[in-house]
Design a protein that fits this description.
0% strand, mainly alpha, 240 residues
Amino acid sequence: MDGDDSCVGSVRDVLMSLPRRAMSDMGLAICCLMCDAPDDAGSARCKACISRHGKVRERLAKGDDGVSRWGRELLAMMSNPQQYDFDDVHGEVLQGYVGLLAEHEGPRAPPTQEEIDALFAAARARPKGSLIRDMANRNPWKDAPPSAESARGMAGGIDEVADAHAGQRTVPSREIEKVDRSERSGEDTSLTDRVTANAAVQDEPEELQDILADVHVAKRKAERDKLSDAMEGLDDLLDD
């Protein structure tokens, strides 16, 4: 790509060909603008160039090696030079490509007042509906409820579902033994208390940390026992 730098001075400095449609479709219109061949559509040179570029693009698209990836990157730069004109290596050349493409396409005329008025008129003419209201309007009973016969017919088509959960609280016929949850993974309260205590006293003097940690653990255990007694009292109240 650096070899084209001497040709990027101005469109008038080179004998250029207008972009062929096949080259534009491949994103390589800049190749035609940089070409020094006569602008003769359908010439043998154009056909050979289009064929070679098409084969190269196809080969690069299928390849997964470093050369293919590098080639795809260069093709992307040539297709959209305005997105890569900051590149450290190719930036100056790509800026020239941007200028060539812009000069070829010509300056874009600003929209006229008539075109602007037409756009606003088209926007005002579009219906402004509501998705929720439009869906509700499809309801066949939006104006009047269904007849009794229709309602019975719809109800007859709905299968009854037996509720397997009565929602009543189970009262066990025998006492349920308490489970030692300390052996369960994730429920070791003593370990949790010790970790929390160590974290709480880490800023205290080192010679007092063990004592303060034991106090912290005992306090957490007492609070947990108090809560457990309250829950058992609530269970007894519900049982009565």
